[in-house]
Structures are given as structure tokens and as C-alpha cells.
Design a protein that fits this description.
With about 190 residues, this protein is an all-alpha fold. Helix content is about 90%, strand content about 0%. It folds into 2 domains: about 1-35; about 35-185, no CATH class. The protein contains 7 helices and no strands. The radius of gyration is 25 Å and the shape is elongated.
Length: about 190
């Protein structure tokens, strides 16, 4: 029996409810089983989710206040039809659009980065397998199990982190486009 099921059986038989759902224990087991690449994958996931939560906070609390302030400034203007007024309108909408799309590039980099880090960990695990085969001179299943486990944990962790970020990236991109169009409609000539 390999390392992960034995550890799971040990936890499930003797553990309290708090120990069964201990996040620190689960993450440390993944890091131990997957190697240092899992730490980098988790770091990209934490950074990605920090940006996602910040964007959620921005769209929920900050954007409505900024939009209503700029809309009030626009409505306070007497001139709405001149070339200068149209440029000021465009500047106000563009300023809000820039605020809405800040952090998007980082999110769009972090989503595909985590599976790539998982792939690097997978290659590292397979190199571990080939190294154990070269040392023993044969393809012993027990000697290969550790490297294959290392490779699969890295792959799984990278994909899990990436998949959790796919929907928020799409949601905030489409929300920024929709909000920009709605702002352009609110700022009438």
C-alpha cells in the first residue's frame, strides 16, 4: 500500500473531527508528496484568489460609488454636446474601465501558470522514477511508486488551482465589458 492511503487510513481511524478537516495537515501532506513545486502552485493559487477577491470587492463596493460620482459630475456639466464635452465623457468612461480591468493580466497569467508548474513537477517526478530505475537496474514497481505519486500530485494540484480560476477570470472580463457599456449608456449627451 502506498503512502497516501496508509496516511488517510491512520487519520480516519484515530482522528477527531477537527483533525480530519485540518487544512494545514492536508496541505502539508500534498507538499510532502508532491515536492517543492506544490508550494509554488499553492502560491499562485493564493495570489490568484487574492486578486479575485479584490476584484469582487471592487465591483461590489467601489465601482458603484465611483460611477455615481462621475455620473453626478457629468450631469452637473451644462455642455454635453461639444467636442470637449464628448472627450471628457470618453475620459470618464475610460477611467472607470481602467479601474475595472486592473489585475486582469495577472489573473490571465496565473490561471495557465499553475498547470505549467504542475507539468514541471510531473517531469521532476518522472525523472525520479527513471533515476530509481537506473539505480536498481530494473523497473521495480515499489521503487517507481514514489516518483509516479510525486508526478500525479503535482499534476492534480496544478489543474485544481487552474480550474478554480477559470470562471472568475471569464466572469470579471465579461462584467467589465457589460459595466462599460452600461456606463456609456448612462452618460447621455
Amino acid at each position: 500500500m502506498n503512502r497516501v492511503p496508509v496516511c488517510w487510513l491512520k487519520i480516519s481511524k484515530n482522528a477527531t473531527m477537527d483533525e480530519k478537516f485540518n487544512i494545514y495537515l492536508a496541505v502539508s501532506e500534498l507538499v510532502h508528496g508532491g515536492g517543492p513545486f506544490v508550494i509554488w502552485i499553492f502560491s499562485t493559487g493564493v495570489l490568484m484568489w487574492a486578486i479575485i477577491l479584490e476584484r469582487y470587492w471592487f465591483f461590489t463596493w467601489v465601482l458603484p460609488k465611483q460611477a455615481s460620482t462621475l455620473h453626478a459630475q457629468w450631469m452637473a456639466r451644462k455642455d454635453h454636446t461639444s467636442w470637449c464635452a464628448r472627450q471628457i465623457r470618453q475620459m470618464m468612461i475610460s477611467r472607470l474601465n481602467v479601474a475595472m480591468t486592473s489585475g486582469f493580466q495577472m489573473m490571465q497569467v496565473l490561471v495557465p501558470l499553475s498547470p505549467l508548474l504542475g507539468l514541471v513537477g510531473t517531469v521532476s517526478g518522472m525523472l525520479e522514477v527513471f533515476d530509481s530505475m537506473a539505480m536498481r537496474g530494473s523497473a521495480d514497481a515499489r521503487s517507481m511508486a514514489s516518483g509516479v505519486s510525486h508526478a500525479m500530485i503535482c499534476t492534480m494540484t496544478g489543474l485544481a488551482v487552474s480550474i478554480t480560476g477559470l470562471y472568475p477570470v471569464h466572469y470579471f472580463r465579461t462584467r467589465a465589458l457589460r459595466e462599460t457599456e452600461l456606463l456609456a449608456d448612462r452618460f447621455t449627451y
